[in-house]
Amino acid sequence: MTITITAFERSPDRGRGLARDMRVRWALEEVGQPYEVRLLSFKAMKEAAHLVLQPFGQIPSYEEGDLVLFESGAIVFHIAERHAGLLPVESNARARAITWMFAAVTTMEQPIVDREAARFLEGDKPWYQERLSMVDERIRKRLSELSTQLGDADWLDSEFSAGDLQMVSVLLRLKGSGMLDEYPNLAAYVTRGEARAAYKRAFDAQLAVFNAASTD
User: Fold this and answer.
1) Residue in 3, 2, 1 with CA at minimum distance from that of residue 62
2) pTM (two decimals)
3) What is the pLDDT of residues 169-215, one digit of tens each?
4) Taking phi first (over 0 means left), then psi (-120 to 50 degrees means alpha), and beta for anything else, what does residue 178 get?
5) Do residues 3 and 202 touch, judged by C-beta distance below 8 A?
6) Ramachandran angles phi, psi of 58, nearest 5°
7) With b meaning 16 or more CB within 10 Å and e meaning fewer, what string describes 182-216?
């Protein structure tokens, strides 16, 4: 059955690979599953045809036969469970990898998204700098804890897993902030993720969409 995912027709991240369809693309590339992409305008994302698939009018959605999923974390989890390559076979290692998947999209991502919201939605407020400082402090606390956990290992739990895929995807949102540079092992960790052949294929595919839309 053909897998179809949805993605932005014109991604607001300007092709930097930060939109959440990138995580699903990367997971599919890691497990060697072909897929098709249906591109949506912001208008189409709020129309009934898409809301049937994604009730919150976001991307990505995932279709495979009769199965329809939404939320990138759930989609990546489904891919990892159904296809070999993203979750360990041994039960305890598998459970730890799943734990890291959840940690990435909850504990780590929440303050990082708060920072983005503050920058784009509250930058003109008189209390913006104070709020940004507080959010940055929360992020640095999480980065410090993650840095300690990772230590000098290549990946979070021995072998690369869906936990690393999600964590690297989240940390990439801090690119340009300078924060990752404060934790050299985390910066190297992200670089290792970006160097994976599957990541590169996924990144190039989503960048090609942005470049094509930019020339219209």
Assistant:
1) 3
2) 0.93
3) 999 999 888 999 999 999 999 999 999 999 999 999 999 999 998 87
4) left
5) no
6) -115, 180
7) ebeebbebbeebeebebbeebbebbbebbeeeeee
